[in-house]
Amino acid sequence: MTPDTPPTSNDVPITDELVDSLVEEAERGYDVDKLRGRGRPRLGKGPSQIVPVRLDPQLRRALEERAADEHTTQSDVIRRALRTFLDVR
């Protein structure tokens, strides 16, 4: 690995030793039951659907700023706004 290699999501540097240990772990195999349940949490009772929407630059900037101010995602801000506007809980 090079000194310019970015760290992992946990700020662990990616080194040759880390890669070797991950390869060894993968070659031993994984317990599939332990892996289940990972990923994004459900937002409701059923699977979520993606709904594309177009935003003008001013609205997009306001959305980005609100999400940053609240330390959340733009999707979360949109979902909360729609729930409030449509009176859905």
Can you put this structure into words, describing what you see?
With 89 residues, the protein is an all-alpha fold. 48% of the residues lie in helices and 0% in strands. The protein has helices at 16-28, 32-35, 57-69, 74-86. Helix 3 crosses helix 4. It is flat. The model has no long low-confidence stretch (mean pLDDT 86).
State the helix count: 4
What does the main sheet amount to? none
Beta percentage is under 5%
Helix content bin: 40-55%
Q: How would the global form be characterised?
A: flat
Radius of gyration: 20 Å
Distance between the termini: 49 Å
Mean pLDDT: 86
The structural class is mainly alpha
Oligomer: single chain
H/E element order: HHHH
Residue runs with pLDDT of under 50 for 5 or more positions: none
Features:
89 residues; mainly alpha; 4 helices; flat
Q: How are the SSEs ordered, and which strands pair?
A:
Blueprint: H1 16-28, H2 32-35, H3 57-69, H4 74-86
Write a compact overview of the structure shown.
The chain is mainly alpha-helical. Helix content is 48%, strand content 0%.
